[in-house]
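We store chain and fold; example below:
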Amino acid sequence: MLNKKTLLSLFLGLMWHNATAAVWGFYAHQRINRLAVFSLPPEMLPFFKKNIDFLTENAVNPDKRRYAVPDEAPRHFIDIDAYGDSAKTALPLYWKPATEKYGTDSLALHGIVPWYIQTMKFRLTEAFKEKDARRILKLSADLGHYLADANVPLHTTRNYNGQFSGQYGIHAFWESRLPELFANDYDFFVGQAQYVNSTAQAAWQAVWNAHAALDSVLLFEKDLSLKMSEDKKFAYEDRNGVMIRTYSAEFARQYHLALANQVERQMRQSVKMVGSFWLTCWIDAGQPDLDSLMAFDFDKQDKKDDEAEKRTWLQRLFRVRAEE
C-alpha cells in the first residue's frame, strides 16, 4: 500500500505535468539555452561553457515557478489580440508608459513578456557590472527562458491552447511534441551573437514575428484534422510510467511538413536572441573580465537553497490545486 509521502509525490508529479503542459517544452528551453552558449565570443565563452549544465538545467525554472509564484505567469506571454487591430501602434514600447495607459492589473491579465524581458536585461547587466557570478548565471538562465517564450506564436494570443477554435492541446503539440520528434534534424548553426542596439525593440519584434505566424499554426492543424480520423490523429504513449494521449507521430510529421520548418525557425531565432542578449548585457556592463569568475562554483549551501526554493514552488502548487 502506498504511504502518504509516495501519494503526495505522485500527486505533485501529476500536477506538475498539468502545470507544464502548455509551455515551450522543457526539452526545447534547455536546448535553446545550451546552444546559445556556443554563439558567445571568446571573452565570454569559457565562463558560460564551464557553467553550461547549470544554464541548461535551469532554463526551465520560470516554468516551474509559473503556477506557484504570484506574478510569474504573465511574464511568459502577451495577448496581442486583446488590444484590437491597432495593437502594433497602440502598445507602448516601454513599461512605464504602458502602465500609465492601461494599468498594471490589465497588463498582467493579458501578459507582459516583452516588457519583462527589458527588466531582466537590466538586471543581468547590473549583475555583470557587479561581477556577481551567481546572479549572472541565474539571470542568464531565466532571461533565456523569457526570450524563447517571446518567439512562440501561441504565446501571443488569448487562444493560446486552441480553446476558442476547437483545437485544445495545440500549444503543447507545437512547442513540445514537434521539437521532441524533429529537433535532432534542425540546423542550429546560427553564427555569432551580435550586439542588440535596442533590446526593447528586439523583444517586441520577436513578439510581432511570432504573432504573424499564428494563423499558420492554427489553420494547418485544423485543415489536417479534417483529413485525418481521430484514431490516426492521436495515439497513447508511455511517459514516465503514465500512459498519455498525444498527437500521433504521423499526424505530427504531416503538420511539421505543412508548417515548413516553422518550429525550427522559431527555435533558431530564440538561440540567436538568447546569445545576443547575453552579449549585449555584458557589453553594456563594460565588458568585465569573466576569466576572473572561472573559479566560481555553486557550493553546498547554494544547492540546498535551490532545492528548498523548488520544494516551496511545489508546496505552493499543491496548495493552489488543493484549494481548486
Q: What stands out?
A: Confidence is low (pLDDT under 50) at residues 1-23.
